[in-house]
TrEMBL record:
PANTHER family cross-referenced by the UniProt entry: CASEIN KINASE-RELATED
Upper lineage: Eukaryota, Fungi, Dikarya, Ascomycota, Pezizomycotina
InterPro entries: CK1_Ser-Thr_kinase, Kinase-like_dom_sf, Prot_kinase_dom, Ser/Thr_kinase_AS
Gene3D superfamilies, per database record: Transferase(Phosphotransferase) domain 1
Record-given protein name: non-specific serine/threonine protein kinase
Organism: Purpureocillium lilacinum
Biased composition (Basic and acidic residues): 1-17
Residue ranges constituting the Protein kinase domain according to the UniProt record: 1-265
Amino acid sequence: MGDKREPPRVAGFRERQDEGDDILSNEEVAIKLVHRRDDPRILEDEASIYRALAGGPGIPQVFWYGQQDDYYVLVQELLGPSLEDLFNFCDRRFSLKTVLLIADQAISRIKYIHDKHYLHHDIKPDNFLMGVGRRGNVLYTIDFGLAQEFSGLASEGRSHGRTLRYASINNHNKRKQSWCDDLESLGYVLLYFIRGSLPWQGRKAASEEEKDDLIKDMKTNTSPSSLCEGLPEEFAAYFGYVRSLGFDDRPRYAYLRQLFNRLFVSRGFKHDNVFDWTEKLHGLVVAS
């Protein structure tokens, strides 16, 4: 007989796959489930990290964590679409203005996580979500299942966050990661958004290991200026700075934000929180 693993009814919440309703307040929530036969420590560790980060900008609120029937359950506030969803909605290309608006908030989120002495280890478009309602213009960081507390000891480590597309060079080399690695991954995310793809996307390899090596070699052998050819020089400057950092070097987050903010101002953009998807949604509403 197969194990159907029926999801539980969480006390106080009405389960609906990844979404539910708080019966007391009628507020929609997000529910993350791990069966007790699987390793519950990942979800337990994630809940612990959310508690450590609680109250920070762009950190989802956790309403409850515990065991219900055969499941470990994490109940969080419900957020809006991911940046990957919005990227697809916008025909897989973001304007420079939208990329710079994202960069400013994303660097701030990463700084807050680092200030709490954690490394995210899995920075990618799917792990950035926009808020809803009055917080619809706020960028949130989610999925701390691979996050770890920074130990401060440089040594050989295991690779984290096997999204090869955005992995740092240290990640590919299985070196212990530091503050710079989250920021390098963010750089690849920004490049993906403004170009529509990354140079190593679609490359074929016989195995996952060979694909890892192929992408690692492309990243290692491509200079920031070549990687960012045709883009404003601030993007190459970002990669040049981030890749120059040593294990113990704490990034100058303010410098990175200023780098992009100066570009933002020089192009005459306005801090009006109007993203590409905002304009497209408005156009759809007007057309209807």
